[in-house]
Design a protein that fits this description.
171 residues, alpha/beta, three-stranded antiparallel sheet, 6 helices
Length: 171
């Protein structure tokens, strides 16, 4: 998987980060939206998107709660929900903000839950109890496994452990 040392993830695209230092570079804890707020904003019948994004000088929206929500669902239900709700909301965010905003999912335990197959760069979500041992084909579900150079591992400095994953545009 390609690595990204640039800060582009802080201003564009969709990222999944688990490193607290990375999260603190783009927002304060008070600026983080709940997953519910995010899904309501994306809903055509909901309140809509704010005029300005809440973080990083109006460039970034950070959302928490994806991990817990996935843990509440059986893997087959989680797959449907990821496509029908989360991917739809990501696409709505992209439509609203174009390339001028970053959407970041804060996954505090993401480094233990997202697994990259080094041979294929396929990305899987490792399910929690009571479905431990099962996986969701996270990359295929959210971006169809498109573009061999995405996602990219976010590095805050050379030779550091990855802080998250970045995808410029999901289609």
């Amino acid at each position: 998987m390609r690595q990204l040392l640039d800060s582009v993830w802080q201003r564009h695209g969709t990222s999944w980060i688990w490193d607290e230092e990375a999260r603190n570079q783009v927002c304060t804890a008070a600026e983080v939206w709940s997953l519910r707020q995010f899904l309501q904003a994306a809903d055509p019948k909901g309140p809509g998107w704010p005029d300005d994004l809440p973080s990083n000088t109006n460039c970034t929206l950070v959302v928490a709660g994806l991990e817990g929500s996935l843990d509440l669902l059986a893997p087959d239900q989680a797959e449907v929900w990821l496509v029908d709700q989360i991917k739809r909301a990501i696409l709505a965010f992209q439509d609203e903000w174009g390339g001028e905003g970053a959407l970041i999912f804060w996954l505090p335990k993401g480094h233990n839950r997202l697994h990259v197959n080094p041979a294929t760069d396929a990305l899987s979500w490792l399910c929690g109890a009571p479905y431990r041992g099962q996986q969701l084909d996270f990359g295929r579900l959210l971006w169809g496994g498109e573009a061999t150079d995405y996602p990219q591992e976010i590095l805050l400095q050379v030779d550091a452990k990855p802080s998250g994953l970045f995808h410029l545009r999901i289609t």
